[in-house]
Amino acid sequence: MWTDKDKQLMAAKGITEPVIEAQLKRFETGFPWLRLEAAATVGNGIQRLDAKQQNQCIKVWKEFQGGGASIEKFQPASGAASRMFKNLFAFINEGRAVPESDFEKQFFEGITQFAFYPLLNKTCVTLYKNNVGELIEAGRYADVLRALLLPEGMNYGSLPKGLLRFHRTASGSVHTPLEEHLEEGAQYAADASRRVRIHFTVSPEHRGGFERLIKSRVPLMEKVWGVKYDITLSEQKASTDTIAVNMDNTPYRDSEGKLLFRPAGHGALLENLNERDADVVFIKNVDNVVPLRLRSTTIRYKKVIGGYLVMVQRQLRKYLEALDKGNVKPADLKAMLHYAHQTLCIVDPSTDGMDDTALAAWLRDKFDRPIRVCGVVPNEGEPGGGPYLAYNADGSASPQILESAQINPADPAAMEMMRGGTHFNPVDLVCYIKDYKGIKFDLRKFVDPETGFISIKSKDGVDIKALELPGLWNGSMSNWNTVFVEVPIDTFNPVKTVNDLLRKAHQ
Q1: Who's near 401: CB < 8 A, 6+ residues apart?
Q2: Where are the alpha helices (DSSP H) in 286-443?
Q3: Which of 174, 252, 268, 400 could anchor a disulfide with 240, C-beta 3.0 to 4.6 Å?
Q4: What secondary structure does DSSP assign to 187-202, as a single string?
Q5: How far apart are alpha carbons 27 and 498 in whole angstroms?
Q6: Half-sphere exposure of 317 toward its Cβ, with a 13 Å CA cutoff?
Q7: How far is the first Cα of the chain from the last one, in angstroms, to the nearest whole number?
Q8: DSSP structure class, residue 96
Q9: How far is CA 307 from the centre of its chain?
Q10: Angle formed by the axes of helices 51-65 and 296-325, to 10°?
Q11: Domain residue limits, the chain
Q12: Residue 348: count of CB within 10 angstroms of its CB
């Protein structure tokens, strides 16, 4: 089935034939729908902390920061911003002369409010000998967009979001998400020696842009924040790419007969995360940043969920140490089971009939896992995943972040749970990735392989199927211990389209 050139390509990527065969079989079988116990709500899977509890978490977090533990921000930043400008590309490609849609009108009416406007104005003068205002007055709207989006101009249509000018201060300085994540790191993720470790995952073609911006900004930022940055970069591994197939599930080949491999979604970054050597790791989306003057709520709740994570980890360590010593009393096992039910929200009817030996083994298996605390916000209609209690392969149910594509649309009960969901996943995670003895987990062992996605893409005008690995905060973390904590909607300010930068939170 495979030619010598196929095998050479696989070897170059570090992908074995059995892996490819398994991917091809998955295209045929698909992925099963996930079975739901309930949508997570406050009191049933989501913790709502009062002011006293929040302050206690912040106190614990500050003590943890000063205690010698290693802390890191893991920042996915490789995605291009092309979808952010989808509507503006359509304006150019469809040859429209003047703004017609509400989106286009909003963009041009607010164009001077964007942080990138001064650079856009300069670029237009360089390219066309006219500034933005003069081009718009002359009806040359498409030229303005070309200056913004295309390689001969600012190339914003191809750059990663982390390098775009998002915010502008009253003094006129501009800030990218990369810089604002560096600032955030100084505000909640510094260790006892005021070292701030941040790891960015980047695409190979833009690595140089990240390195140049880091080199130019970090010296001043270290002085301003009184920290020392330890910044590392990595790229998505070629070995995580997945084979593309035709609609009949046969391997797709281009006009030269070459196989097509595609990046397998953010789940591929589990390999990058697995190589990080830290006790605690914060993860969030690169576009969910706000200017410094609006960041206090975000910083507070990062410390809240960080402190809550530390408290959970300490309790689980205490239980695991007791279980390892043996001779745990029935009352102690009962207390541990209560914690599994009430804090970790694990539901497993099979524990009702277990003797003490079996229950101790069950508890040890459930407790000795990576831990994540996920901030969840009240659902205000944003598209994306949400918090649920979902069933696992062993028959237990536990907290999971699910996407709508994983839920069976033909299941009335599941659809009702979806409609009744009260909260949304903003990707606001803090993770403990070492075991209670301080040994780093192999995170690949806690993935649910049944939670990937198959999507339809286009290649050279032909429809093809693509395979995405279990998402980084979805199926890749299915078998972690997960706790959902409610955080304010003010902590969630994503930039999905360029016009989102006109919202109050980004001005």
Answers
A1: 374, 385, 386, 387, 388, 425, 473, 474, 477, 482
A2: 296-325, 330-342, 356-367, 412-419
A3: 268
A4: HH---TTSEEEEEEEE
A5: 35
A6: 13
A7: 56
A8: -
A9: 21
A10: 70
A11: 37-80+165-492, 88-158
A12: 19
For the record, the structure tokens of 214 come out as 């880091």
| C-alpha–C-alpha distance, residues 446 and 139, integer Å | 56
Written as six digits, the tokens of 262 are 């595609």
Reported confidence tier of residue 283, pLDDT bands at 50, 70, 90: very high
Q: Cβ contacts of residue 470 below 8 Å, gap of 6+?
A: 267, 447, 448, 449, 451, 452, 476, 478
Q: Is 481 left (phi over 0), alpha (psi -120 to 50) or beta?
A: beta
Residue whose C-alpha is closest to residue 210's, from 286, 272, 273, 113? 286
Q: Classify 37-80+165-492 by CATH class.
A: alpha beta
pLDDT in tens, 257-276: 999 999 898 999 999 999 99
Record the pTM: 0.94
3-state class of 399 per DSSP?
A: strand
**367: closest CA among 330, 318, 438, 305?**
318
Q: Determine what percent of the chain is predicted with pLDDT higher than 90.
A: 90
**Mean pLDDT for the chain?**
94
| pLDDT at residue 420, as a whole number | 87
Q: Checking DSSP bridges between strand 71-76 and strand 167-168, what pairing results, if any? A: unpaired
Q: What is the pLDDT of residue 383?
A: 58
What token pair was written down for 10?
A: 């696989």
- What is the per-residue pLDDT across 150-174, written as a single tens digit (0 to 9) for each? 999 999 999 999 999 999 988 889 9
Q: Residue 111 pLDDT > 70, yes or no?
A: yes
Q: Provide the residue type at 78 as one letter.
A: S
The DSSP bridge partners found for residue 484 are 46, 374
